[in-house]
């Protein structure tokens, strides 16, 4: 029962189908105090296709809706101009799952190369991340840490909670070639 006359008896979920049409803030608030992450945050998509059993956010933000690379580029440019930040966080439940993440990060890295602006993917999964993506994110010269959580101590437990990350994804196999015993050998 509603506690006021203005409140409806039943609330219905509303879903924005085209995130590029949604009125994203053009001038983000910039705090006067130092925040934990001094960066421009841009939401690149909503939803998730993974279906992890414990994830409420993945269930309530369905279906997956992506912003276009052009829309994201415009949001980044406007946000940087309005805020003065020098780091951009590309946000979502799992940012590396964006269908055009490779082209998106390459385009942004090309646009801001030499400007001191860096890119980060604060939310990514070990099985969606790769060396090419790491190279694009590090082109600004600024390095940041990466954190990958296996979400379960064993492969069996990861399967139970629908985290399809194998032991090989987490711990690559050791090379089978023998070491040349040279002091500069990378296998030493």
Structural features, described:
The protein has 6 helices and 5 strands; from the N terminus they run ββαβαβαβααα. The chain is an alpha/beta fold. The chain has a domain at 40-170: Transcription Regulator spoIIAA, CATH 3.30.750. The strands form 2 sheets. Strands 1-4-5 form a 3-stranded parallel β-sheet, with helices on one face. Strand 4, helix 3 (101-112) and strand 5 (118-120) form a beta-alpha-beta unit. Helix 3 (101-112) runs parallel beside helix 4 (131-137). It starts with 39 loop residues before the first strand and ends in an 18-residue tail after the last helix. 19% of the residues are buried. The model has no long low-confidence stretch (mean pLDDT 83).
Bulk shape: flat
The helix tally amounts to 6
Distance between the termini: 70 Å
Largest sheet: 3 strands, parallel
Please give the CATH architecture of the domain at 40-170: 2-Layer Sandwich
Name the helicity range.
25-40%
Give the mean pLDDT.
83
Q: DSSP strand (E) fraction?
A: 5-15%
* Strand order in the sheet with the most strands: 1-4-5
User: What is the radius of gyration?
Assistant: 21 Å
Task: Please give the number of β-strands.
Answer: 5
Low-confidence stretches: none
Instruction: Determine and state the CATH class of the domain at 40-170.
Output: Alpha Beta
CATH topology descriptor of the domain at 40-170: Transcription Regulator spoIIAA
Structural class: alpha/beta
């Amino acid at each position: 029962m509603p506690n006021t006359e203005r409140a409806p008896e039943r609330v219905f979920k509303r879903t924005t189908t085209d995130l590029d049409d949604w009125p994203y803030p053009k001038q983000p608030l910039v705090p006067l105090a130092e925040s934990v992450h001094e960066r421009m945050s841009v939401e690149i998509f909503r939803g998730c296709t993974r279906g992890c059993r414990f994830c409420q956010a993945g269930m309530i933000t369905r279906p997956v809706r992506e912003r276009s690379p052009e829309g994201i580029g415009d949001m980044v440019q406007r946000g940087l101009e309005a805020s003065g930040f020098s780091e951009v966080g590309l946000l979502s439940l799992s940012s590396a799952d964006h269908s055009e993440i490779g082209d998106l990060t390459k385009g942004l890295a090309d646009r801001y190369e030499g400007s001191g602006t860096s890119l980060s993917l604060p939310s990514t999964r070990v099985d969606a991340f790769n060396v090419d993506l790491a190279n694009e994110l590090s082109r600004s010269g600024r390095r940041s840490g990466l954190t990958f959580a296996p979400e379960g101590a064993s492969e069996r437990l990861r399967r139970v909670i629908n985290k399809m990350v194998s032991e090989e994804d987490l711990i690559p196999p050791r090379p089978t070639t023998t070491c040349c015993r040279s002091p500069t050998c990378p296998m030493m």
